[in-house]
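README: folding subset

This subset contains proteins for which both the sequence and a predicted structure token string are available. Records are stored as plain text. Below is the entry for HNH nuclease domain-containing protein (180 residues), shown exactly as it appears on disk.
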Amino acid sequence: MQAETYQSTVIKFFSDPLPFKKLKLKYAWQERVIFFDPQDIYTQVKINAFRRIQSHLAFPDMFPDRKDGLCSCGCGIALTGRRRRWATNDCTKFATAVWAIIDGQVGTYEYYLGKYQGRKCAVCRSRRNLKVDHIIPVKYGGGGCWLSNFQLLCHACHVEKTNADFGWKQPLPGPESLPV
Ligand SMILES: [Zn+2]
Ligand SMILES: [Zn+2]
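--- output ---
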């Protein structure tokens, strides 16, 4: 892949929201997480794309306090009573999940990915030994990404992709390279 194309692919995966599709979810705020457009957050916070876990990200960086008395999560609901940042408990759950995904908490992004993609391998559809794969690997700047840079792969497909990503497994030598 050419450098320019590669760069734009990385950026695209970073902040692109997932394409909408109909899902069966228990809570409306979970649907809000999955189809959230994180663009604003990515322009506000510093991401170390070469790290799996961000760990320096704080709520106020991602969801700054607003001066207009509205909830920081962007739902548009006014803060009342003793509430200082989130208008409802659902807002807190939504914002916590968004934070955990971008921060790199595997339990959280695996959960939402499973809801979106289904608990099956993105390549061969197997339901066994699934693990989450960074489509653009962390080593190449895919860390701290949004859900769009993740996919569930079975162990075999994950090994194959990792080999392809990093070239660990060299192709078998052709007849011309066999010793004579
Ligand atoms: Zn809210
Ligand atoms: Zn597979």
